Amino acid sequence: MKSYIGAIDQGTTSTRFMVFDKSARIVAVAQKEHQQIFPRPGWVEHDALEILRRTQEVIGEALQQRGLQASDLAAIGITNQRETTLVWERKTGQPISNAIVWQDTRVAGEVARFASDGGQGRFRAQTGLPLSTYFSGLKLRWILQNVPGARQRAAGGELLFGNIDSFLVWNLTGGPDGGVHVTDVTNASRTQLFHLKTLDWDAHLLAAFDIPRAMLPEVRSSSEVYGVARLAAISGVPIAGILGDQQAALVGQACFRPGEVKNTYGTGCFLLMNTGERSVPSNFGLLTTVAYKLGREPACYALEGSVAITGALVQWLRDNLGLIEKSSDIESLARSVEDNGGVYFVPAFSGLYAPYWKETARGVIAGLTRYANKGHLARAVLEATAFQSREVVEAMEKDSHISLESLRVDGGMVGNDLLMQFQADILDREVVRPAIPETTALGAGYAAGLAVKFFSGLEELRANWSVDHTWKPRLGEAQRQQLYRGWKKAVTRSFDWMDS
């Protein structure tokens, strides 16, 4: 009897391998960061081979912690940073360039050019997505146009495209020696090359972006056996689940009913609402995306509000300004003052995502006086995450016509009590943290476990979910509205900083 399920959680800044038992308890975990590469302002890259090495290392380390072997694992699921775009050689597995990360803005000119014919919503009906630097299609187009010989090689079948999920599955199942080239519907839905209704690559979109179909992975469900691992430490274990990171968190939070919502606080912040088997178009700046497809069951959809910079802003304060030694220090620094001192930080480093979708916005710090100190700046950094989340919640309530009673939260920042209390205060809603806050990896494990019958079904997964802590709003209405007005004013100062 296989006792455990494994999950690879390949994120923007680090890679983890986690092992869960049938009750969703964490049995083992190992994590390693990888380098963030910034060749020019607005450019963000990753070394995909470094990510592959980190993946192999954390798998070995996590298994070693508990003396586990491949035979102990029923299956492995993968969840990944979405939209990060990679092209590699079919024969060697060698990437032809660094991966272009989802935060990268180098294709802003192409966004404007495409939007000049049909507007920013030109492809929304098919894809649920506005034209933006965020998604994979224009990043892939940039690689084909700027890496010498890439377009010809891609058309000839020599090159493969994928987000990080595809690259990992291909390598873990054999790489150049029979590796499986697949992705799932959730990752495919973030490329702007995928049709939400047909659940496949769209010929008209491929033609518009000038992308050869020969290089694209096969689109599969989020929960099925794609192949078996050939890496020594996990040799023979089925790779049986793939979910983009935010969809994985939705599954990990057991949000399987229409109207259920989660918010993940990581590098960015991502709020998803399950809308069931119906894809809901957004009129208020949200994305329509695939939530998951479990085996042969119909696909379920979601409304999503994406915020580019939240946890990454804490890292910026640590690495670029040196105001804190480690990310967790921000809470004590922010608590050294009673409030934000009138300071607001709008982290539009990569433009503004939901609900604004303004590529030409850039980060601003507003409201500075001689009174302001580093404590106020730290508090403004944390509050920026909560303010941005409120904007997304408001848009989601308008689109869905559903008023949220509470907000389920997860991700690395939910251990910050000051942030979570302020989130409840500025939302005027209860904020609920589950017993297992790192639900992204758990969602990937659930998808893999369902595929191999390690889990019996959705009701078993719902039964695993439980509350760890609830924050109730404590802020008066007048103060809440005053703070929010200040935020809205600061946001407008970030607009149109860059020329179109």
Structure description:
With 500 residues, the protein is α+β, with helices and mostly antiparallel strands. It is built from 16 helices and 23 strands. A 7-stranded mixed beta sheet has the order 17-18-16-15-21-22-23. A 6-stranded mixed beta sheet has the order 3-2-1-5-14-13, sandwiched between helices. Strand 2 and strand 3 form a beta hairpin. Helix 9 (245-252) crosses helix 14 (439-451). The radius of gyration is 22 Å and the shape is globular. It starts with a strand and ends in a 6-residue tail after the last helix.
Short description:
This protein has 16 helices and 23 strands.
Mean of pLDDT:
92
Q: Which stretches of 5+ consecutive residues score pLDDT under 50?
A: none
Number of helices: 16
Main beta sheet strand tally, sense and closure? 7 strands, mixed
Q: What is the strand content?
A: 15-25%
- Evaluate the radius of gyration: 22 Å
Structural class: alpha+beta
| Strand segment tally | 23
Dominant shape: globular
The level of helicity is 25-40%
Distance between the termini: 60 Å
Instruction: Tell me the strand order in the biggest sheet.
Output: 17-18-16-15-21-22-23
Search tags:
23 strands; globular; six-stranded mixed sheet; 16 helices; 500 residues; alpha+beta
Secondary structure elements and pairings:
Blueprint: E1 4-10, E2 14-20, E3 26-33, E4 45-46, H1 48-65, E5 73-80, E6 86-89, E7 99-100, H2 108-115, H3 124-127, H4 136-146, H5 150-155, E8 159-162, H6 164-172, E9 182-184, H7 185-188, E10 194-195, E11 200-201, H8 203-209, E12 218-220, E13 223-228, E14 238-244, H9 245-252, E15 261-265, E16 269-276, E17 287-292, E18 300-307, H10 311-319, H11 330-334, E19 344-346, E20 364-366, H12 374-400, E21 406-410, H13 417-427, E22 430-434, H14 439-451, H15 458-464, E23 467-471, H16 477-494
Parallel strand pairs: 1-5, 5-14, 9-12, 15-21, 21-22
Antiparallel strand pairs: 1-2, 2-3, 4-7, 6-8, 10-11, 13-14, 15-16, 16-18, 17-18, 19-20, 22-23
